[in-house]
Amino acid sequence: MPDACGQLSKLKQNIEADFAEAVDEHPMCPASTLRIQDLAIAKGTVQSFSTRAEATTSWNLQMSTMRCSRFLSLLAVLFAVGGCASTTTVQLDPSPQEPVCAVSATALILWMPEWRADQKDVLAREAAAADGLSKFFERSGCFESVSIERLPLTSEEAAQVAAADATKRNDKVVLIAVRELGPIVKIGASAALVEGGTEVVLGVSEFMSGMTGPRTFTVQWRSGGPGVVKGVASLPQDMQAALAAGLQPPVR
């Protein structure tokens, strides 16, 4: 949605310009308001303000109610557009789940994409997934030793058969289906104008020799919220975070 994003970016630039003008003209609202210096430092939008504030020995407290209200309105919108904190949520279905990780075991990780039919940028998402998988198993200590293989495009049933057969040669086989990996953005979904973040959805199946069938569950990991817009740069890290939430490696 390039048009909507461009309009949002232009709106934010206009608000930031008015914000800076208000700071120059009126360094403080009446006593009931927060100090502009604190707000400016927190947001980082007026980088030179702190230096000027330290050199000032008195403040102009004769600001009109209209001007102060205008400034606070601009401040509220600016924080809503670009300053909200991101929150992370994790859902395991069914839940709870015992850890898949076993520090004394050798494991084979088989993974495959299961994108929806209209998925965009497939190659970039698969590269991010592969990067996240590699780094997670390299750094997490999930298993004593591990090898990772990407399955060719196949049905879920065929993948399950391949994973079950591989238990003859490994302590544990974990089949990971990557169903979602990417940014999510909703424009106009709330008073914050934009609500977004990133989402990872994984299907996990654990196979072990002697088991009558695999243990299967879904991991849904989200990071974001109102006022948050994220791109694709964090997707390998998001993949690692989702794997950690689902496979539960030991605390290091």
In short:
Helix content is 39%, strand content 28%. It has a six-stranded mixed sheet with strand order 1-6-5-4-2-3.
Features:
single chain; 2 domains; 39% helix; alpha/beta; globular; 6-stranded mixed sheet; 252 residues; Rossmann fold
Describe the structure in your own words.
The chain contains 7 helices and 6 strands. The protein is α/β, with parallel strands linked by helices and 252 residues long. The protein has 2 domains: 2-82, no CATH class; 87-247, Rossmann fold, CATH 3.40.50. The chain has a 6-stranded mixed sheet. Strand 2 (102-113), helix 5 and strand 3 form a beta-alpha-beta unit. The model is unreliable at 19-66 and 71-82 (pLDDT under 50).
Number of DSSP helices?
A: 7
> Which second-level CATH architecture of the largest domain applies?
3-Layer(aba) Sandwich
Q: Could you name the ranges where pLDDT drops below 50 across 5 or more consecutive residues?
A: 19-66, 71-82
Strand content: 25-35%
Fraction in helix: 25-40%
- CATH fold label of the largest domain: Rossmann fold
Q: Sum up the overall morphology in one term.
A: globular
User: Can you write the helix and strand succession as a string?
Assistant: HHHHEEHEHEEEH
Largest sheet: 6 strands, mixed
CA-to-CA gap between the ends?
41 Å
* Number of individual domains: 2
Radius of gyration: 25 Å
